[in-house]
Specification:
The complex is a heterodimer.
Chain A lengths: L2 H6 L3 H7 L1 H5 L1 H4 L9 H32 L3 H6 L6 H12 L2 H14 L1 H28 L4 H6 L4 H35 L4 H52 L4 H12 L16 H17 L4 H4 L8 H33 L1 H7 L6 H9 L6 H41 L10 H25 L5 H25 L5 H20 L26 H18 L6 H13 L5
Helix pairs in contact in A: 2-8, 2-11, 2-21, 5-12, 5-19, 7-12, 7-16, 8-9, 8-16, 9-14, 9-16, 9-24, 11-12, 11-19, 11-20, 11-21, 11-22, 12-16, 12-19, 12-20, 13-16, 14-21, 14-23, 16-17, 16-18, 18-19, 19-20, 21-22, 21-23, 22-23
Chain B lengths: L11 H4 L1 H6 L3 H9 L21 H5 L32 H12 L6 H10 L13 H11 L1 H34 L1 H4 L2 E3 L2 E2 H43 L1
Antiparallel strand pairs in B: 1-2
Helix pairs in contact in B: 5-8, 7-10, 8-10
Chain lengths: 573, 237
């Protein structure tokens, strides 16, 4: 795989960061080669950063136990009692969405590749229009806790819950895996611990924390952790952004020019093609990725679940608007940070520290604070690291909660149950959800330990592509197509899920190139690394095919109820 | 009544004390309204809490049945004074064309034949365990009603064209970025080139559509939807 192919792979947002390069790279093992750090400064950073990490852990645990004391019912566990305000939920949604990969990875991409880094920020923001207009309000009105609720409202319960539950768990698990593997490398990177063992312990620690957050605090704790994290992240980014602008006296033009100079590419830095030039396959791959990004967000279970934490559809709309405002301004600020890193740190120094550019923000904050070895530099570096750490913890907690909710509410309580069987009580369901969180956490920890050598971009790629191919077609058909049937719904989900997974297995990500997961064998025949451009149409196509080929007809009463309920909120929970 | 008192960037809820207070009790009140409409019998748990409050909805109905103020504002501090002026999408030929096209698809409910077949034709097998109930009748009736049709028309008239527009604009932009590097690299002003300009315009258009959508929903749908929700839930009782 060429470097540009490796980079292309990413919903790199989350991905770059987590990229194999970061995980495997010898560069990671030898950060002192940056030469920017003196030994003493590194120690100083590390102590301060460790201290702040401990503070973050204590604060989040405090929130968890505080929230856990008050939550008992299923409504509390899954939906945080549904009494969050749009403002709070908007912050929590943004917190769920902006992972450390956005903060560190995208900024690094912009620092290294200029304009081509900017493309990611746009895909991740524009996706929110789908969520705002097609998903947020309607899902809030139709469902109770999960995506499957919306489908089950007009379909036969068991098959659609099984399908939607499975795809939700798959999406969340891949996403979780990516975040945790990335978390391991990040924590060790930020704390300066570089042995494989330290990384493994970091993964176990992060995994254990997330299980505690979810089992003890449920949605209420998770939401508050997201809010705190989002405030930290936005204000941290804003401070750095202002410091960069002050350096350039508010002149964005001179910032761009200095960045172009510092990048070593000159004018090419500001033009497209630095990263996505090259072969037609590469370019097509990028379009595929762009499609998966813009459509995937609307099908991510942990984002959908957030809309149930507010009381009404209008509140859901307003939380989506807050999220758009926050996510948008955050990405605008990351552009400034990325340019600032190129201009003030220099692309070669960023690359020397971490080839994927993940350390651009910490390095930039150090320069802004007064340079390596200065107190200001050490403080800003430590604060930036702690913000990134809080970000990781919050995102994994949100994912664990979403997958345990899907498991307990959809699969265990309804899909895996004979229709004549007595349904479980809410209390039993919540107990199972808590157990599921522990199990999912444990599975994620174990898988992440084995997946440390995996190209993580691939994991995130799968989760976005599956969300866009399986969840979104079923959801949209269900909401807008009167004739949509149960068979259509299950076909849409499996018809998107299976092609997405199969195409990834036979893509260059898994075999056939030096950077692949499996080396030595070449069984790839699908040229693209992101399956979206094929699997998303598949999901829609099979949804249509399943519907027109099914013998049963859609229940008009159920659709009437769904429509009235989705647009007016009549009967909404 | 203009359903806006003030423009507030920090969320209408927090800023409007009387309504904000109502939110404290929102969950219970909410249940009250939600429960009668629930179709399946699978969620028995919360019905106990309904009885004691049975007289409340009548009294609280006019102000804030959602437990949330009507005066909510989009969080952008937009001065949407010319709201009645309509959205830029509302009357464009494209909008009308798309709306017509959309309604030409099978999404329109075609209430008459459906109802006929539901009543006289072979009995449709229902998915929920309960037999067809009065609730289903109510929903069918509401769905066929002019009020609901109007709400749905307003929703689709904005959302469908807007989605087509932004997805097209985004995909064109992505495709242009990978296929037309020459054009995209052309300088516009100072270090700013076409690619950066279009990228920043993507941000701007996202914010703009967000604000327009919120305004459209607030001015054209929210009140009617709220009223209809109320009415429907009344009839479902």
């Amino acid at each position: 795989m060429t470097p540009s192919a490796a980079l292309l792979n990413a919903p790199p947002l989350h991905a770059r960061l987590l990229n194999a390069r970061l995980l495997n790279a010898p560069l990671l093992e030898a950060p002192s080669s940056t030469a920017r750090f003196t030994a003493a400064a590194v120690d100083g950073h590390r102590n301060l950063a460790t201290g702040l990490f401990v503070v973050v852990v204590l604060v989040t645990l405090g929130i968890t136990f505080w929230a856990g004391r008050r939550s008992r019912a299923a409504e509390d566990f899954y939906a945080g009692g549904r009494d969050f305000s749009p403002l709070q939920n908007g912050f929590a949604i943004s917190g769920d969405y902006m992972s450390a990969a956005s903060f560190l990875g995208v900024t690094g991409l912009i620092a290294l590749y200029g304009y081509d880094g900017l493309l990611y920020t746009i895909g991740f923001l524009v996706a929110w229009l789908v969520v705002l207009m097609l998903v947020a309000e309607l899902v809030r009105n139709c469902g109770r806790y999960t995506l499957a609720d919306v489908l089950a409202q007009r379909m036969r319960q068991r098959p659609v819950r099984a399908a939607a539950g499975v795809s939700s768990v798959v999406v969340s698990l891949f996403y979780l895996l990516a975040q945790m593997v990335g978390a391991g490398s990040l924590v060790s990177l930020l704390l300066g611990l570089h042995s494989g063992q330290a990384r493994a312990w970091a993964i176990v620690g992060v995994g254990a924390l997330m299980v505690v957050y979810v089992t003890v605090g449920g949605m209420k704790a998770t939401t508050w952790i997201q809010i705190v994290k989002c405030v930290l992240l936005i204000s941290g980014t804003a401070v750095l952004c202002v410091l960069v602008l002050v350096r350039f006296h508010g002149d964005l033009g001179s910032l761009m020019r200095s960045a172009a100079a510092g990048s070593g590419y000159g004018d090419r830095y500001l033009a497209p093609g630095l990263k996505y030039g090259g072969s037609a396959t590469n370019r097509l791959d990028f379009v595929s990725l762009g499609l998966a990004l813009v459509l995937g967000t609307g099908g991510l279970p942990h984002i959908l679940g957030r809309f149930y934490t507010v009381p009404t559809a209008r509140a859901a709309r307003r939380s989506a608007m807050w999220a758009i405002g926050l996510v948008g301004s955050f990405y605008l600020m990351t552009i400034v940070l990325g340019l600032g890193a190129a201009a003030l740190v220099g692309a070669s120094a960023v690359k020397a520290s971490n080839a994927a550019g993940n350390t651009a923000v910490p390095l930039l904050s150090e320069v802004l604070g007064g340079g390596a070895g200065s107190n200001g530099g050490a403080v800003l570096f430590a604060v930036t690291s702690a913000v990134a750490f809080a970000t990781i913890l919050a995102v994994v907690a949100g994912l664990t909660l979403a997958s345990s909710a899907s498991f307990a509410h959809d699969l265990w309580a309804r899909a895996f149950r004979h229709p004549d069987e007595e349904p479980p009580t809410e209390h039993e369901e919540v107990v199972v959800a808590r157990i599921a969180a522990v199990v999912i956490g444990a599975v994620a920890i174990v898988l992440s330990l084995y997946a440390q050598k995996l190209n993580v971009a691939f994991l995130v790629g799968i989760s976005f592509a599956v969300a866009a191919s399986a969840n979104l077609p079923a959801l949209l058909f269900n909401l807008f197509w009167r004739r949509f049937t149960t068979r259509g719904a299950t076909w849409a989900i499996y018809g998107g899920l299976v092609p997405a997974l199969v195409l990834v297995v036979f893509s260059p990500v898994v075999s056939g190139t030096p950077a692949s997961i499996v080396t030595g064998v070449d069984f790839h025949w699908f040229p693209l690394e992101n399956p979206g451009i094929v699997s998303i149409p598949c999901g829609f196509f099979f949804g249509w095919l399943g519907t027109v080929s099914s013998r049963e007809r859609a229940d008009p009463d159920a659709y009437a109820e769904l429509e009235v309920r989705s647009l007016t909120g009549a009967g909404a929970v | 009544m203009r359903h806006r008192e003030r423009t507030d960037t920090v969320g209408g809820d927090a800023a409007a004390p009387p309504a904000g207070r109502v939110e404290e009790g929102a969950p219970e009140r909410f249940d009250w309204w939600a429960a009668p409409a629930r179709r399946g019998a699978s969620e028995p748990s919360r019905t106990e809490s309904l009885q004691p409050e049975s007289s409340e909805p009548e009294s609280s109905q006019p102000e804030s049945p959602y437990g949330e103020p009507l005066q909510a504002e989009p969080p952008y501090g937009v001065q949407a004074d010319s709201a009645e002026g309509g959205t830029p999408f509302a009357d464009s030929p494209l909008t009308v064309a798309v709306a017509e096209w959309v309604s030409g698809l099978s999404v329109e409910p075609e209430p008459e034949p459906e109802e006929a077949s539901g009543a006289a034709g072979p009995v449709q097998e229902r998915y929920s365990s309960a037999p067809p109930t009065a609730a289903a009748e109510v929903y069918r009736h509401v769905q066929a009603g002019e009020e609901f049709q109007e709400i749905r028309r307003e929703y689709r008239r904005f959302v469908f064209p807007a989605c087509v527009a932004f997805l097209t604009w985004y995909l064109l932009y992505i495709v242009a970025a990978v296929t037309l590097p020459g054009l995209m690299g052309r300088q516009v002003a100072g270090p700013l080139n076409v690619a950066w300009l279009l990228g920043l315009l993507q941000f701007a258009s996202t914010f703009l559509i967000t604000v327009l959508y919120a305004r459209h929903a607030r001015d054209r749908r929210d009140r009617a939807a709220l009223g209809l929700r109320w009415e429907t839930q009344d009839r479902l009782r």
